[in-house]
Amino acid sequence: MGVKAKRISSNMEDYLEAIAFLKREKGIARVSDIGRLLQVKKPSVNAALITLAKDNLILHERYGSADLTKEGQRLAGDVQRRHDTVFKFLSRILEIDEKTAQADACKIEHAISPMTFGRLTKFIQFVEVGLDGGNPQWLKSLKHYLKTGKKLNCRMRQVALKKNKE
Amino acid sequence: MGVKAKRISSNMEDYLEAIAFLKREKGIARVSDIGRLLQVKKPSVNAALITLAKDNLILHERYGSADLTKEGQRLAGDVQRRHDTVFKFLSRILEIDEKTAQADACKIEHAISPMTFGRLTKFIQFVEVGLDGGNPQWLKSLKHYLKTGKKLNCRMRQVALKKNKE
DNA sequence: AAGGTATGTTAGATAAGTCTAACATATTTA
DNA sequence: TAAATATGTTAGACTTATCTAACATACCTT
Q1: Structure pTM?
Q2: Helix residue ranges per DSSP H, A57-153
Q3: Which of A75, A93, A116 is the endpoint of a domain?
Q4: What percent of chain A is modeled with pLDDT above 90?
Q5: Which nucleotides in chain C lie less than 7 Å from some protein C-beta?
């Protein structure tokens, strides 16, 4: 029953992601643009497109553009969501600078299980939507600790609060 | 100045990790054991040992055992620490089951930057050592939310507290 | 529409990492 | 110690992913 859900490589996931991005942003995913995005040469892109087409993840005719199939869209979406989740966690909670967070997310997105993805998603929700039982203080303490390595005491908290308002 | 700090592949990191583990656990790192640990055949191990020896990360003589050099020890230690940190985060904070957490950590350990490693380490410290300004409640709320998707209200909190005491 | 530029493809090489089958060396044990 | 077993190595093939150089097609522009 159903098509066997092949496991594709990190590299192929990157290509799918790039194609999805270009379709969304420019309406069309071309070899050159994919190459520019992923920092690889055109023949590499071409080889990748042939592989992805063989796996029924894209439609691709010679000298034509690449389009994701239903399955390709699904996989690309999965990768994208993993990326976004990891990126949010790194940047909003661990407060890692954007560049580093993006770079790390680009690698971690290929490495996390559905379980970890789900939990991470919920964790972010928990923090952002304020489901911490009305105790947002811990987040401030966390962020202060992450940056200074020091515990926020009462006096320091006041200072931190003031800084946040500036 | 100093030796150029080569960047080694995820695979080579795995081999270093395995060698360090075997040295620690059994006093000696042999080709067969490394293979068993990493689920690869002996010729693959052999090839890896040659590569690592060429990079001065291990000492290895024909038909002899493998020993980490100072640099090899340093790298193996780095990987190990990244693994432990990620594993702790996944298992203790996101409460992912051990098997999945180990599997994910084995991949993520190759993907995180020093910055992310540092922040994650501090985050775990923050949680474990109770540096959250004396508000451990948020953690309970988090764990409850991660598992049920629901916010802990006052009544639910009492229930959660009771369960924790069982 | 012809020519030039941009884009896409093919061919062939390279590198990393894996495998199997065959061979070599060590170690154990009868 | 000699044979049997375990362990390590070599040779050669395969896969994935990349590259350069050369070639093919598409498109724009005048």
Answers
A1: 0.86
A2: 70-88, 98-108, 114-128, 137-148
A3: A75
A4: 67
A5: 6-12, 16-21, 25-26
